[in-house]
């Protein structure tokens, strides 16, 4: 029950205001100005003032504010605000700003009227909205009565995210599984933190209204299948090792009722690219690298560093663009570095030795040794920040997640080409303490 | 000079549009500099300069620099000016005074100072001034001084050296010794360069402020200089500022003169007044604003000087007129300064008629928008207020209070309250005014102010009725928190005085209090609760209603209120006797320091500028601090006189009251001084002979109520009376200082004589003196009413200590008192004889060895001692020899056993003939320090035992309870005294740590008496509540007397 939506810039100038319910008056704008904009620190995206709650998101130089008087589900409001931004991006392109809102104010009002009714979110699919709310320059030629009818059906239909009547000559499905690693390893090699954040991104180019089914090596699912009898699966084929997924969130197209009953993921995909699911795994995670750091402070002005990196994944695979950042004391003057592979040099900007290896083969051991010369000065104790690694390993998942099957059922389609890619990524989030 | 690398670096930094990019750029640069410093051992001067400059820039934009100090220090050694300059800059910025690198640079700075190169010298001086660590100051001060004084150094360097020395001096004032520096400074003042003179005077101002007398020699020189500028006007054109010759120098000269008294020599005195005259009369307004400002600055400073010197009526009058004229000027700054100057003037000057005429103009100052002016106007009104204009000024101030800004309100309320109190024409006016003030002042009224009202009303019985009436009226209106507080307190305490009037019957009082109770804060609610209980106690008919009300409060959410109401409820319902005791009429408050004046003094200390004057002076002169106590004192006096007629107190009391009234008749015109001193001495003597014990005045006043069983209340009045006697006595002594000085000298001579003869006992005497000093030190704390009093007492103390030494009676008494707790010491001493004793006690038996020392060269003939037989001692004395040759000592041993308890010690009579005395016989009687406590043994008791016995003994005459003002409340000191009196201090018996509990056992030949005591110390008024419980009346009273004598504040 959002009582109103407000677009306001940093200076407190109101761009758009739309009130949906009569329980608030226009004076709430002033309240927002005083309590949020004028406040010195605005760290919370939510502010409660005398019975009125403001939930806001900042985009560039302006805020989108949802105002409510009721005790509303805040997550819903923020999800909705995010969706609004997505819709606007769909209409105005990635870079929309205050000016775009000003020049297209009538369109914005139109959209706001359509996506909320009496405070309740309605159609939020850009594709559908675009059918009947169009920018002036995109105006279609006269619509036939038929197509107008179709719009209303789609807008009110069950599957709001997919247009009907799509046709592709070549039906293809692309499935990307991307895992982000967040590891922290102690200098003795013990895991302090091992979180894998994964997403399943799907790009569909399918005709008609296809029904898709996705099978993963989810432990619960597999156990259920086996009926609890065969606890041990045949591990011969990779991908059948069951894994424990901590939590999963799905795109709205996934039928949750079905997932709840038999853990099967079935859906009618939207056209184009979308994030089908995201998940988190913390148990039984395979680590792709082992790092052995040796740092010795020799006297007050020299530090010896020797870092060995061992890749633990199969030798058929390789890591791309591996960068190892080895921090040095703040008063480092120069570094004498020796290494067999890759390039290494001292970067004073970030105070690290940056060692980059283009291609890191599996089951390989590389090492770097350096003598760091310090300059005398008023030294404080070096805090010894951790070594961090960047890498991208194709065809490798740290969690062990595999796609067991992807079925597409649609009458009109005879043949579907399916592509599955795996990717394991770390952007400085794989850290090893020294 | 230009460094391209630095310029590029700065440009890069400027280009960064976010903090992160800037940080990256800085890190990169620092990394580069680090590697440069590391790699190239032999770096060119230019490079080094460049990198240090970059580091400096980085440091200045807020990054931490932890290297490069060595390079900076190396730059100092460079011969190139530009490199040296950067080096000094870096050193001054990067190093602080405690840095370890300081050691490295001291030497090179030293070399630069001696180099003779003007530029290097200047750089070095600047660095010294900016860093100025202790090490540096010690090592380099002499060099800087040399530079300043030497003939060879240029004026430019001298200027810097003077300022550098000033910086060093401010940090380490001990570096320059006046005796050494005064002459050098004199030489400096004859310099003809005005630039140097201005700098030197800045230095001198600081020096003179620290020790005006030490630099007095400079005065004539300064006056000469002033003459050169003001009268001869021989100043080069380049030192004129808008046609005013060296205004800054002039101001400094005038200011430095304010630290000294007016010059002694006539010529310079005349010169000075000529100069001042010329400045005062020569002031003309011109078109140029800057010219006017400069002129006025000089003018104000010279007026300040005139006020300080106070030697020319004419000049004072002119300056007053000028200032008053300035009051109507448009420029705010001028009005501000003239108000400030007038405050100074009124604080010092006695003749205020001119200022008073312009009172209305000053009132206008209050209404100005500018806060500063408002404050200054308030200050001025505060200082110029006296009895003649207090009504008007206080009225105006209260009117102003309504509209005053919040930042000034606190001060305003405080000052108004002080004025109203100090210059009250009559009491009803005071009560009206202060209540109005409290009503209007709201939150700005601090608790002190209404406490003060309560204090004054309580101490002035005539005022009570009126106060209660006014307060009752006020409570009926809508009023402030503080007004309710003061109202409810006064109604609770003195509501009885208006209870008979129809409009203010007790139930009406009750209703109004309950009505207010609902709308105020807990702090005040508590006061109302107490007041209600007092009403309930006074008017039994209302008790039920009040009990019911208090009963409801027992569940109040505030714990303090809850506790109070529970206590009161129980008192009202169950323990009526406690109620009676707890809510007796308030005793009058002792005269403590006026808290308001204290506060204002604190405030002023905060903002005090280091000038030679402050408003406080004026207050001191007017005796303002005393006035309130005077007011109260008079009242007391009346009351005392009433008592005198009503009852027939003992002879002593009449004497004391006479003494007071005589002293208070007028505040000491000078002629009467001598007489009064005599009166005082006579009366003390009398009281000593009349009283059986050789107690002092104070003790006597305490004794009376105790012996007579006069109700508690009166005892209290008589104690406060005692303090007022003290106050007055101190007053007298102050005026008698000169007398004392003469006596002092005689005394000193005498002392010298003694010391020759009595090498043995010197040590003891010394400790004795120290003890007396200690006593008075504490005395000081308890009895000062005001700051003035504090100062007076300090003066008096010195004279008192001397006077006690020469007053044999007093000295004897002090010796006696100290011997009560110690086993040995000197009992008596004059120029003939010294009597010492050593004693030893075991249970009921004792031994005393008396030493008679002949201090003369001549022999004492016919030496006889006689101890008056007493029933309580079985005494055996050794015979004593008939003759004591010159400068020798004789002993006499006394054995005795205590048979029963006693109150007064035995006496010894000593007589002898001496040639010097001629026919007359030396004959004196002393009390021997054989007191009851000597037979008391320490008995450790456990808590349970103690409490068991404690509970057995109840009430007088076996038990004693009383309060007295103590000289000390430190537990250790009290413990020492008690153990001297044979009483064991028991730890951990009383749950309250501040209370002291002790026990002892009195042993006579066939008798044992257990003694228990407890002391509750009160930190606030330094009083001790003493409870003694024994099984014998005499033991109780003697012990009590002994303890009080030892611990009480002593008066001479």
UniProtKB/TrEMBL annotation, chain A:
Topology relative to the membrane = Peripheral membrane protein
The main place the protein resides is: membrane
Please give the InterPro entries that the UniProt record associates with this protein: Adaptor_comp_med_subunit, AP2_Mu_C_sf, AP2_Mu_N, AP_mu_sigma_su, Clathrin_mu, Clathrin_mu_CS, Longin-like_dom_sf, MHD
GO terms, biological process: endocytosis; intracellular protein transport
Task: Specify the signal sequence span.
Answer: none
Transmembrane regions listed in the UniProt entry: none
Swiss-Prot/TrEMBL keywords: Cell membrane, Coated pit, Endocytosis, Membrane, Protein transport, Transport
Annotated MHD domain ranges read 170-433
What's a GO cellular component annotated to this UniProt protein? clathrin adaptor complex
Record's PROSITE patterns?
A: CLAT_ADAPTOR_M_1, MHD
Provide the family line. Answer: Belongs to the adaptor complexes medium subunit family.
Name under which the protein is recorded: Ap-2 complex subunit mu
Q: Which organism is it from?
A: Anaeramoeba flamelloides
UniProtKB/TrEMBL annotation, chain B:
> Where does this protein have compositionally biased stretches of type Basic and acidic residues?
672-683
What broad class describes the main subcellular location of this protein? membrane
Subcellular compartments: Membrane, Coated pit
* Region annotated Disordered, chain positions: 619-723, 739-765
What the record says about family reads:
Belongs to the adaptor complexes large subunit family.
Described purpose of this protein according to its UniProt entry: Adaptins are components of the adaptor complexes which link clathrin to receptors in coated vesicles. Clathrin-associated protein complexes are believed to interact with the cytoplasmic tails of membrane proteins, leading to their selection and concentration.
Q: What is this protein called?
A: AP-2 complex subunit alpha
Q: What is the lineage of its organism?
A: Eukaryota, Metamonada, Anaeramoebidae, Anaeramoeba
